[in-house]
Design brief:
Distance between the termini of chain B: 33 Å
Order of helices and strands of chain B: HHHEEHHHHHHHHHH
Helix content of chain A: over 70%
Radius of gyration of chain B: 26 Å
Number of helices of chain A: 10
Shape of chain B: globular
Strand content of chain B: under 5%
Oligomer: heterodimer
Amino acid sequence: MMSQGDRRFVAATGAATALLGLALGAILFALLAFGAPAVGTLTNGRGADIQATRQSLLHATYGTALCTMLMTLAVVPIGVITAVHLTEYARPGSRFVGLIRAAVRALAGVPSIVFGLFGLGFFVLFVGRGIDAVAYSHRAMPLFGRPSVMWASATLAVLTLPVVIVTTEDALRSVPRELREAAHALGATKLQGIYTIIIPAARTGILTGAILATSRGAGEVAAILFTGVAGYTPNLPTRPHDGFMHLGYQAYVLATQSPDVDATTPTLFLTALILVMATLGLNGVALVLRDRARSRV
Amino acid sequence: MMGHAEKSLAASAGPQRHRRAARHGEKLIELAMAAIAASVVVAIILVFAFLAREALPLLVTAHPLEALRGLTLPTGEDGGFAWQPVGRTPKLNVLPLVVGSLKITTIALALGVPTALAAALFVSEVVSARTRRILKPAIELLAGIPSVVLGLLMLRLVAPAMQRALDLTYTANAIVAGLALSLAVAPIVFSVAEEALSAVPRETREACYALGAHKWQTALFVVLPAALPGILAAVTLGFGRAIGETMIVLMTSGNAGVVDVLPTSGARTVTATIAAELGETERGGEHWRVLFLLGLVLVTTTIMLDAAGRAVARYLARRQGGIQRT
């Protein structure tokens, strides 16, 4: 039997839960309802502006994928190696470990717009301009010392580093101690044990971290505002120092600076829909993997 | 620390010098790994160093205090706090931005934190373990919606409807921004708070029921206080997320650069100002440097707050005598 207080408690907390679930449902429904109709117009329509819209959507999708992929390629090895060092090599409780943990926490708390400032100040203006000064001093215009897809990816890699480190560390710690000892007893050196036994045993968790980081990076706009994103590029980026278009930035521009609001609204929602399908899809995969890894242990 | 078993195995498996060479190689690899691990520390130092590199020349003058006063106190004949970086006499008073950030963050937390905590109580105290396994990730999916998408939905769909319904002067205002921001904050607060509540031992609840307490009494007066350190961590995390969020407030806050605490009027936040103006200003100018200085203040605030929240949580946990691990 539930008392009246219990009924009220369940109703109030249940309502809050429903509210959050409803918000998620409403967001997905709105994106589908307003964005899906644009698919038909864009695939079947002719005319110069439809062609232009189609092209910018294509460029933005490609740019998002490219930037996110480069970021993942940069962040996963660094993050995984850091986590391996923390769990397998470093003495627990040592000053070095404390320092790294404090740095990971601090990095996780840095707002993304600050990463944008950092990427501009460090990657573009310091590293990029440095490369230009050394190798391309004959050029009047900066080549590497300007926002580009490589600097945007590098900035996002720094931003997502804590995600990869923390999830990988969790995954490595959940590998039973006996496996390490067994590898040792069979004559494997420490490193052999790590890459033949421990990393394979933790691979689901490591993959989860990589996917979560990818999802986070794909949806990030503030950090790439000054480090590489462009409102329009005539060609797809082919070199690391090219600018690129991005779905998130495209959505921002269409939502706030559109010259013809009614005409661009379907494109706006379609752009957002593609982005959300990518980030939520990746998130969903990560959640399923995590759930499976947990239930197996 | 090689065991006897391994040594004899190595001896029987192959020439010993191979193993020694391999071990030397491993030492090198180990060093390389330590160096890569240290890169996280280097990264956070670089963040501060390169923000400071662009910002601090502003304060390296004969009168650094004068420079700071110019940024925070009313200046000029007309007085007043104004952020108008473009114009014949640029006004770079950061106070409206700080007030704007705090105003929107307050609204976001006021809406998001209670909802998130209530949902966390529901998931940890009311539903079965099986439902929890579905419900928790479902709500956490909300955190996977990019903030730019939350911003545009709020701007295009919710804000116009709200303006009509409440007869507001501005479409984009602090309430709209705070509401959108609460959707970004709630899933994070929910996730951390729910972990903390679920970590409270089952025995605590059962002891409570045995004493005749109802479920709601147990949840609110026993479980919630026991999970307080974790809940505090959740709220601090939510605050950091809210004050550092950029795209949502850039799109929905109206970006008015004057001090105004009314929730129905517009507001301009620190983050939105950086995002909107850095691209249009000249490198090395006063405006440029102030924007980097704002970034420096922002990141210092979030990190300090996180550290403070953590310290308080640790203190609370210690006072509870270790029944709760955070």
